[in-house]
């Protein structure tokens, strides 16, 4: 289980430059004119996790398989996109398929890079995009409600539930609030998710700053941070130009380059970590001579659910999970020493998996 993040933003905010850097490709053309991205580019990247490399070293694993994250670079949206302006409208469907939205905001000054509204105001930009996504959701809701009338009259329970949820979302949107502000009961959670409304998705605001502001940001990124906090959303500061340069360097060179800029880690690491936090994700590991592997799960998963991420049969036939905490595995030097020290635990169906657990599942076929 990885996750898919859609990258959105107005034209010329650094979206495609960031995408290119994150995926280390030139698949998305980065150019100084609107709509240079006319097809939704998709790129899978490894989730960087130093713990996995350490486990592989101790277990002498032949293969190392990191968790994966998918980025979808979506064409620059503009005001009026929900009504077909620009090229944005045809890409709204791609946003619906993502788990979260990374909203890239221009927080840098550069007279050589044009802005569609001839001003640099990231908070206003965020409002433009949010409005277009809300309008797109409203249009979708109106069409769906019209299509449900006959089934609702016939007493179809699923249709009645859908109508109730759609109207709750409609009320919020007409009040100027995204659909994610609607309180949804546990019994409605699945049906709510299946509605695939764009504004139900959590948002990570990506502040694209100048190269000399990458460490601490600036006044514009601070304003975005305040906005994100007020919404209960996340934010991260990145310089797309720096990320693009780093993507072309060898690991040792990249580390030295970051150090010279006063940065502890690459923007990709910060972006993924922020995305994980936003979606409530965590990682557990499997490690042995054949391979060491990272698995992404939702925080709160029980052992059988975590096993099911590997294969459905693991969850259905779950017996127990032999579990070692990461610190114990590394500190004691592997599975054997950890077992001898009494640090391997046999956990059952009610065990709440912790971030960093090293696990081996026993199951009935």
Explain the overall architecture.
The chain has 14 helices and 12 strands. The chain is of the alpha/beta class. The chain has a 6-stranded mixed beta sheet, with helices on both faces. Strands 3-9-8 form a 3-stranded mixed beta sheet, sandwiched between helices. The longest helix has 32 residues, at 122-153.
Shape: flat
Q: What is the succession of H and E elements? A: EHEHEEHEHHHEHEHHHEEHHEHHEE
Secondary-structure-derived class: alpha/beta
Mean pLDDT: 87
Number of strands: 12
Largest sheet: 6 strands, mixed
Spatial order of strands in the largest sheet: 2-4-1-5-6-7
- Our estimate of the beta-strand percent is 15-25%
Please mark out the parts with pLDDT under 50 across 5 or more consecutive residues, or reply none. Answer: 25-38, 85-89
Draw up the topology in text.
Blueprint (H helix, E strand, L loop, with lengths): L2 E6 L6 H9 L17 E6 L3 H10 L3 E3 L2 E6 L18 H5 L3 E7 L15 H32 L3 H18 L14 H6 L8 E6 L10 H13 L2 E5 L1 H8 L3 H10 L6 H13 L1 E7 L3 E8 L4 H8 L1 H5 L1 E7 L1 H7 L2 H6 L4 E3 L10 E6 L2
Parallel strand pairs: 1-4, 1-5, 3-9, 5-6, 6-7
Antiparallel strand pairs: 2-4, 8-9, 10-11, 10-12
């Amino acid at each position: 289980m990885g996750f898919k993040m859609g990258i959105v933003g107005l034209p010329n905010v650094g979206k495609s430059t960031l995408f290119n850097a994150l995926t280390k490709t030139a698949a998305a053309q980065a150019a100084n004119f609107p709509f240079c991205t006319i097809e939704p580019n998709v790129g899978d990247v490894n989730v960087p996790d130093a713990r996995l490399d350490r486990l592989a070293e101790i277990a002498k694993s032949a293969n190392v398989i990191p968790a994966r994250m998918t980025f979808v670079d979506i064409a620059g949206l503009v005001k009026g996109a929900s009504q077909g302006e620009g090229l944005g409208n045809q890409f709204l469907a791609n946003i619906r398929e993502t788990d979260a939205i990374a909203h890239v905001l221009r927080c840098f000054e550069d007279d050589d890079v044009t802005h569609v509204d001839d001003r640099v105001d990231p908070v206003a930009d965020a409002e433009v995009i949010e409005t277009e996504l809300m309008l797109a959701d409203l249009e979708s809701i109106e069409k769906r409600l019209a299509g449900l009338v006959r089934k609702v009259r016939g007493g179809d329970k699923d249709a009645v539930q859908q109508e109730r949820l759609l109207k709750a979302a409609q009320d919020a949107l007409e009040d100027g609030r995204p659909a994610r502000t609607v309180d949804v009961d546990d019994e409605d959670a699945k049906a709510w998710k299946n509605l695939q409304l764009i504004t139900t998705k959590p948002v990570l605001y990506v502040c694209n700053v100048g190269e000399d502001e990458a460490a601490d940001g600036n006044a514009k990124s601070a304003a975005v941070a305040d906005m994100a906090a007020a919404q209960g959303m996340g934010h991260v500061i990145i310089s797309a130009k720096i990320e693009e340069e780093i993507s072309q360097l060898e690991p040792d060179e990249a580390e030295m380059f970051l150090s010279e800029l006063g940065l502890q880690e690459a923007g990709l690491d910060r972006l993924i970590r922020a995305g994980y936090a936003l979606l409530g994700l965590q990682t557990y590991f499997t490690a042995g001579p054949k391979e060491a592997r990272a698995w992404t799960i939702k925080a709160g998963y029980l052992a059988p659910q975590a096993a099911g991420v590997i294969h459905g049969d693991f969850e259905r036939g779950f017996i127990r999970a032999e579990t070692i905490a990461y610190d114990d595995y590394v500190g004691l030097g592997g599975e054997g020493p950890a077992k001898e020290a009494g640090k391997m635990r046999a956990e059952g169906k009610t065990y709440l998996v912790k971030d960093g657990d090293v696990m081996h599942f026993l199951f009935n076929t």
